Amino acid sequence: AAAFSLDYQGHISPLSTVRVSADAGATARCFEWSPAAADTLVAAASDKSLVTVTVKAESSTPSSLVGERKLGAAVRAISWSRKGKQLVVGDDLGKVIQMKPELDIVRSTMPPDSCTIPNPAVVGLCWMTTTEFLVVYGNQAAKDVQATIMITKKDKPVTWTELPDLGYGSPQAQTAPALTALCLLEWNALLTTSSRSPDVSVVGKAAETWQVWVPDELHQAALPTNAATAETFPVGAELDFSASETLVLTADGTKRAPPSPIVCILTTDGLLMAYHAVLLRTGAVSMQIPRKAVNPSSVRVGAKPAGTGGQTVAAAPAAPGAPAAAPPPAPASTVQRSLFGAPTRATAAAAPAAIGRSPAAGSTARAARCCAHLLAQCETARTPDAAGSLFGAAPAAAPAATAAAAAKAAAAAAASAAAAADAAKAEKQRKLVEDRGKVNILLQEVQNEATALVDEMARMREITSATRPTIEQIEREMKVEETNKLHEINGYVREMEEEERRNERMLKTATIRVADRLRMVEEAGEGVGALATMRKDYDYDREESLSQLQRRVTSARTSMAEVQKELTRMRNAPESPQVLSIGCEMDV
């Protein structure tokens, strides 16, 4: 893959496209590149599919499948181990599943009992060390999330440590909860961003304990507000380790820091923010990774899609009567450009505005105090008449009447879209209420059947209680040589009691399975189709369980009748004891 500057004039199409699921209606949810193999990634889809693929842009076969699996719930978060030998995924049921790259399951862990989030899903995940994981639970309805450190040591139970200061959610946030962790493990630290918080949090390890570190306000990385002074939130975040310039931390230049990682964050307001992550500890390990020069002749793009011409970025026609715009001069061989096409410090003053929009008044100073390096201003980029298009081409002049008509049409389209969105929301709410009613009916049926199973076990318990005194009385009356046979009868009664305990465990397992399915349906909001599928699966499980239980009860009753008959015969003829033989078939 290659990065293109904003003034690139050619067509831009993907080098390779990988389909995550065979289901045409499924959408990709998340993906992570392997730290061990730069061409390998794992991706998850909304239909519970999970795949590991190797992308081969240079080959006639664009990708090859490493592993494929369909889980019990859709995956929301993925994290690789530092060496890329294994990975963990978190799903909508709150389960953390450890896997190999081929997606063979190593272990799975459910949420801790201390989790206070109702119907929790894993919304953030980071494999920090061999045995330590950052796991964040949340759901769409909960205001805040719950962050924990999960420790899994060999031959020991899993332990959990909560990080309460990492769960804050802003009242203004409207997006689904999602937490991104950026690893600075050489510094024993993580940087985390939350889709419901404008602040960047720091999680650090001191004295073998992970905790949330809170910088002072001067050094706190926080996203700026928008033009309406409303909070903005992160859409995505990533680290750049290629910075090479020494940082000047004070106005007089006396305090400096070596080149440090740069945190790039895209906001909901369309700004791309950049902050230096600085560790002032003496002797801190350098995390710089020198950038490699890119040969322009090696930059490639994918083939144009048939019938579309690709994503061609061409210069707009010049205004009538205006001279044609001269092509941009080729950069000198001594001038290097950044990922976004901006020149180095020597020519930075002449760089045109390219990305985003300036922060609102009052937030710019705060971002500057936090060493925020905004990659480019965009007030002019949003005004094409003043500075040209986003990619550097001069736009055509539009008459005022045409602009007014376009604005009116845009307003009408926006109103129509808003009305359609409101109607869709109302219809979705109606279906949700209807589905919840059906779920309640199904739950009541399950409870009724569970009550019937409990009653059946109570009747078996009564039979056992009634039989034991009879056995004890006959044992006192019979001769010593018949005692061994009575012990066999007593052992059979104990088997019946064990069978009763197995039935109780079976009932608990069935109840937990039904509750998990109901919770998954209500959490995912998949509607009547999902309810029908779940009902079919549950009817099958219920009929199978009831059939097994009925066979066991019938066998137990038959055997008990034989016991009663044999005991009656022995009581009526004590003078000539017979060998006691009981047939017992237990269907376990």
TrEMBL record:
<feature type="region of interest" description="Disordered">
    <location>
        <begin position="295"/>
        <end position="336"/>
    </location>
</feature>
<dbReference type="InterPro" id="IPR015943">
    <property type="entry name" value="WD40/YVTN_repeat-like_dom_sf"/>
</dbReference>
<protein>
    <recommendedName>
        <fullName>Nucleoporin Nup159/Nup146 N-terminal domain-containing protein</fullName>
    </recommendedName>
</protein>
<feature type="compositionally biased region" description="Low complexity">
    <location>
        <begin position="314"/>
        <end position="324"/>
    </location>
</feature>
<dbReference type="GO" id="GO:0005634">
    <property type="term" value="C:nucleus"/>
</dbReference>
<keyword id="KW-0813">Transport</keyword>
<dbReference type="Pfam" id="PF16755">
    <property type="entry name" value="Beta-prop_NUP159_NUP214"/>
</dbReference>
<feature type="domain" description="Nucleoporin Nup159/Nup146 N-terminal">
    <location>
        <begin position="35"/>
        <end position="272"/>
    </location>
</feature>
<keyword id="KW-0539">Nucleus</keyword>
<dbReference type="InterPro" id="IPR039462">
    <property type="entry name" value="Nup159/Nup146_N"/>
</dbReference>
